[in-house]
Structures are given as C-alpha cells and as structure tokens.
Design goal:
Helix content: 25-40%
Strand content: 15-25%
Organism: Pukyongiella litopenaei
Oligomer: single chain
CATH topology of the largest domain: Rossmann fold
Function: Catalyzes the conversion of 4-hydroxy-tetrahydrodipicolinate (HTPA) to tetrahydrodipicolinate.
Number of helices: 11
InterPro entries: DapB_C, DapB_N, DapB_N_CS, DHDPR_bac, NAD(P)-bd_dom_sf
CATH class of the largest domain: Alpha Beta
Strand order of the largest sheet: 3-2-1-4-5-6-12
Structural class: alpha/beta
Number of strands: 12
Protein name: 4-hydroxy-tetrahydrodipicolinate reductase
Subunit structure: Homotetramer.
Distance between the termini: 31 Å
Length: about 270
Amino acid sequence: MTHLPGIVVTGASGRMGQMLVRTVAQSGRARLAAAVERPGHDWVGADIGEAMGGAALGVTVTDDPLEAFARAQAVIDFTAPQASVEFAALAAQARAVHVIGTTGLSDDQIAALEPAARHAVIIRAGNMSLGVNLLVGLTRKVAAALDADFDIEVIEAHHNRKVDAPSGTALMLGEAAAEGRGVTLAEAADRGRDGITGARERGHIGFSAIRGGDIVGEHDVLFAAPGERIVLRHVATDRAIFARGALRAALWGQDRAPGQYDMADVLGL
C-alpha cells in the first residue's frame, strides 16, 4: 500500500471531509496519508476512523498541515476560502498537488493562489463531478448558438448549511454562458433582485439561489425567449460524486507541470 500516492484530507470532520476520507481509504488507488483539522478541534489526536464512528484507519488527526503535506503527494481541500489560500502556500512548499473544491473565493483570493501555482500543481473547480463539467461545456455551446433574445438564468439549490451564494457551480455555469456570449460575467451578471428592480436588461445572466433541507446540489441553466425555453439540468443526489472527482483530480495531477488547472483539464473536455 505504501507505493500508492499519499493524500491528505483537510477539514476532515466536515461532511465533505468525511466523505473524502472514506473515498480515499476505500479507493485502492491511493492511501490516506493524513487528516487535518484546525487547532483545538475535538478530533485532533484521535484516529480519524474512530472519530467518524467507525473502525480505526491508523491515521491520527493532526493540526499541523505542513508536516502532513510534507509526507504526501496530494492534498484535497474542501474548507474555507482563506484556509485554502494558506494551504496552497504550504502545499507548494511540499510540492504536493493541491485539489481545491472550496467555493466562495474572492477574486483577490484566487489571485493569491498564483505564487503557489508557480511551484506546484493546483486543480481548482467549483464542482468536481463529471456531469456538471459536461453541463458547463453544453452551457457554453448553447449560449454561443443563441443570441441575446434568449435570457439566461442560472438557478441553483443547496442544503440549508451552505454559506456562500451563488454556488461555485452556478458561477462556473455563468462564466461558461458569458464566454459563449463573448462577454465577461462581471459585466453581465445579475446576482440579486428585490423590490422594484425594473425590467430585466437584455443580455444579462441572472442567478437565483435556493437553500433548504439536505439538498446536495441542483443546477438549472434556463434559456428563455418569447414562445420557447431550453433548460439544461444537473441533479446531484450523493456528494460522493464530488469526492470521487476530487480523487481523480489528485491522481491526475501527479507528475504534471506546476500551474493552475481545472476539472475540464482533468476530464479532457
């Protein structure tokens, strides 16, 4: 087993963290090298398997990410924006592939990843699933084929504990629609409507966010014109699809040249 690539999971106690731990440990293609949590967390010092309520996995939860990264080949990180920026610098020091599934990063935080990408592989995506990345490609093509008589709306739904909106996936879809239209999302996005907003502006790309219950993730891209509508849709029912995609990215990144990549690169789309 020691010949398999070692992978560190950050934010190991979270829902995605636990799913990643299980996915890596059961994959047969990689080994769980470490599980990282913030200093002071109750799980630090415990076996990650036992902390998750199962059998021991022989991996102790640590609050020292640099030491953990130094003995691994990849880091999978679904945490928080500032934490991901800090982890990127540490992963670059260790020359470990850094797979970032964290959403909600600001433009400044995304720019802050660039120095790390000069020394190590960073694979960042708002969504790691194959289906969503196919949807992104379809959205780009449909937007390019239709003129601005078709209004574009991105509608997304997630569980009630999600802290950012629109979702990272919704923004990926919005970016794809903008690219298809030959504009930037910054100039075309309409990210909030409340009160007397006036008529919808021609060519704008609108966003709607729904939060409730335990919805894993649903995304619709609506193209609406007088007399007809086209709806592209992806529904996720199990967050394991994101964990499997992240693992695939971590393995794909081995021996790649330093730089920033996304799931379209990983999937060859």
